[in-house]
Amino acid sequence: MRGMRRLALLLALCALATPLARQAPANLVIEKNVEARMRDGVVLRADVYRPAGGGRRPALLQRTPYSKNPGTADSQFHRLARAGFVVVVQDTRGRYMSDGVAVPHDEGADGYDTIEWVATRPDVDGRVGMFGGSYSATVQLLAAPLRPPHLVALFPSASYASRYDMVFQGGAFYLGDGLSWSLGQAKDVRRRMLEPQANRDGELGLSPEERKQLQGEWYRHLPLNTIEALQLRRYSPGYFELLQRPSYDTFWTTFDVAAKHPQFEVPAYHLTGWYDSLLNGTLANFSGLRANAGTEHARRNQRLIVGPWTHARPTSTTTKIGAVDFGPDAGFDSEGLIVGWFRHWMSSGRSPVEPGQDKSTAADWPGAWVRLFLMGENRWRDEQEWPLRRAQPTPFYLHSARGANGLDGDGRLNRSAPASGAALSDTFTYDPAKPVPTGLSGAYSRMPVDRREIQQRSDVLVYTSEPLAAPLEVTGPITAVLYIASSAKDTDFTAAVSDVQPDGTARALTDGILRARYRKSKTTPELLVPGARYEVRIDVGATGNVFLPGHRIRLEVSSSNFPRYDRNPNTGAPFATDATTVTARQTVFHAPDAASHLILPVIPR
């Protein structure tokens, strides 16, 4: 028995050896846990997938905090290696097999060092591209401004332009993602501290029991800054640092990708989906880099594709989100696009890139600047810019006679401004103890779910247009301009747009939120005077949707979207400190001198 234990220990140690070639598909070689030493001496580890045989090839790098041991994503790395690339997949600092202490989003220097390390491998020809989604997109955009000499091109899928705007949407805290992500981090850090000899390469996340607690007591815990689930304060203190910085300040500028756009020198293909929570950031990075990147080569070679996708990598078989099928054209071979993109910039006919060498020797990417999937008509269309210059900002005004509370109300949405003598406002009560649920729309990604159950609530104002006689295309960012009053010193207002089908299904398109104290500025909060009237503007997000004949446009207005965002307790106290909540009486005006309206970017046809 003792001999069997020794054998098991020996096998476990062998599994941690670096590098170690493991069994690979035909014509591929896979090396495990290849070490790269960063400038401060910390060792990060990567798996390397490469074609069998000799020769030097261009490399593709992905850096991830979610384990380089990819499970089903293995096939993506195999395909890229078969296409002729050396594929390097690295655990970021302090995550899984890599050493050091993780500092979320502080990835610029490690990215630079890893790119240059990859370029010196004997099987790499000196040219390195980066690819990946979400956090793996962000690490690309934090490394590129440092101008690694051997970095040639990027393929970021779902990125942020401002970390602040990713954490605080309209001043409201992204609780759903922020807490669940931090709890997952805490479990990994705890394992490292208490079980330093454990195999760190396996999957690690919240258990079913922990997820049940998350959806129940943990999301609802007050005050936000006192939660101790999974010893969060000890093992993931960065979560509480976010809670201490609800206003935009110098802490956030360090991670502000948009501010670094002038330092970018390489092409980038930006991919996102209409239902991706990082849609706005991806759009901002594309348009910002196209206008402000540091070289003409980089500015000319920013590209964008937006499809009917959530926060996930689309595949050639992805045509549905939930119950909604967007048709056969929605399937998209993203891996094929990645291969084509990097082959263009790192074709075998080009010489290896040396430090200081001009990276712009290849011709510009021949594809469209922008590819958009038009929901409703379920087809692709090529464009020359984002946002579309021909879009016409079109106001749709809010009206009601008896009140717009829920689907039983008579809220209307049309092009006519309110007339004198009409009803002047709608009111509802917002109780933080009974928030409007995010529901199946997801705490992180959005979903094209049927919103009717939520629209039945009396604390949701519902405004619906008449059935359309002709197609109406809405492509671009949407804004809700509301004239409001509240009995509270601080509160939230939300807006959501849906496409109402002839059968009554209200398919969600996009939504947004605004914390009232940030109505003027995200740097300097200002409380409300209870009962006073204010104009607020809610960023409702972007969409690309054709409302077909017989369909109707619907706007919801309320004060919560939980647990995607934290509940505003309505007290006006400093953020995250409230142990109790109070109800607020909310008013939305639609009078001639306070004409609340929805601004839709209508595309002429």
Detailed description of the structure:
The protein is α+β, with helices and mostly antiparallel strands. The chain has three domains: 2-165 and 252-383, Rossmann fold (3-Layer(aba) Sandwich); 172-245, no CATH class; 392-602, Galactose-binding domain-like (Jelly Rolls, Sandwich), CATH 2.60.120. The chain has 14 helices and 27 strands. The strands form five sheets. It has an eleven-stranded mixed beta sheet, sandwiched between helices. Strands 16, 17, 18, 20, 23, 25, 26 and 27 form an eight-stranded antiparallel beta sheet that branches. A hairpin with a 2-residue loop joins strand 8 and strand 9. Helix 3 packs across helix 4 (135-143). The longest helix is centred in the first third of the chain and has 20 residues, at 175-194. It is globular and about 80 Å long. Mean pLDDT is 91; it is low at 1-21 and 349-356.
Itemize the secondary structure elements and their pairings.
Layout: H1 2-15, E1 20-22, E2 28-37, E3 43-51, E4 57-64, H2 74-82, E5 86-91, H3 108-119, E6 124-133, H4 135-143, E7 151-157, H5 163-167, E8 168-169, E9 172-173, H6 175-194, H7 208-220, H8 232-235, H9 238-243, H10 250-253, E10 268-273, H11 279-292, H12 296-300, E11 302-307, E12 320-321, E13 324-325, H13 334-345, E14 370-374, E15 379-383, E16 392-399, E17 412-414, E18 425-430, H14 452-455, E19 461-464, E20 472-486, E21 492-500, E22 506-515, E23 534-547, E24 552-558, E25 584-591, E26 594-595, E27 597-602
Parallel strand pairs: 4-5, 4-6, 6-7, 7-10, 10-11, 11-14
Antiparallel strand pairs: 1-2, 2-3, 3-5, 8-9, 12-13, 14-15, 16-17, 16-27, 18-25, 19-24, 20-23, 20-25, 20-27, 21-22, 21-24, 25-26
Helix pairs in contact: 3-4
